[in-house]
Amino acid sequence: MTEAELHRAVALGVIATAIPTWLALRYASAPYGRHTRSGWGPTVPARLAWIVMEAPASLVWLAIFFAGTRALAPAPLVLAGLWQLHYVNRAFVLPLRTKPDAKRVPVLIPALAIAFNLVNAYVNARQVSELGAYPTSWLVDPRFLAGAALFLVGRTLNVRADEALVALRNEGRGYQIPRGPLFRWISCPNYAAEIVEWCGYALATWSLAGASFAIYTFANLAPRALSHHAWYRATFADYPPERRALIPELW
Ligand SMILES: NC(=O)c1ccc[n+]([C@@H]2O[C@H](COP(=O)([O-])OP(=O)(O)OC[C@H]3O[C@@H](n4cnc5c(N)ncnc54)[C@H](OP(=O)(O)O)[C@@H]3O)[C@@H](O)[C@H]2O)c1
What is the pTM of this model? Predict the structure, then answer.
């Protein structure tokens, strides 16, 4: 088996994993944040869990990327820059913005996330700096330009929505109904924007690797958006009735 064949098999495996992930999360929401509940084994502080589980998506990704023979070429470097723009914030900035408190998550959550992030780092970093063979002219290809634009729009909205939610949380008054333009039509703009972001990255890399992560992200976040939405409706009698979970007017 060549490395290209192995890489393709692993990316297809990520897509296959999206199906049980979707089914499991529709059945039971992942037990962290507002859906925390007992019975999921030992726990660790939430801030530590976020840093430890997301760091490999930045650092291991970089190590694999720089092991590639095309790592120093312009197009791979730009694609790496997009990836790191997201993950440096997710792993090292966002967790430190959240006030440390007694909130804990079951060890199972970071353990599963680390395993996924290691596989995903291999699939996507190897694609960009070795197997994809992106020439410099890729940077003016319409697929790259449209994908990068979509990625940057998604990234901007994801960060803004997360920051608004973390600011609400840091007020120390418990969960509240989020307000403002991003939350006008949907309950989870941070998740919607993250899905858009990785669809953009898939387009910008025009690869099975990128598509596998976009599909997995959807399978992971869409059920959670439905759980959050149901929770908001059950918790707040005055929750805006026109608000949907993930897609304005639809869903
Ligand atoms: N690519 C993937 O597969 C994937 C998977 C998971 C997460 N993510 C991303 O990681 C980021 C964080 O995810 P998450 O699941 O933690 O998002 P979340 O449930 O929306 O929570 C984000 C932060 O805001 C707080 N918060 C949320 N709603 C609030 C409200 N109504 N009132 C007060 N505080 C509120 C949360 O506090 P609590 O923690 O106390 O609830 C948490 O600190 C998102 O951008 C998400 O897209 C990506």
Answer: 0.97
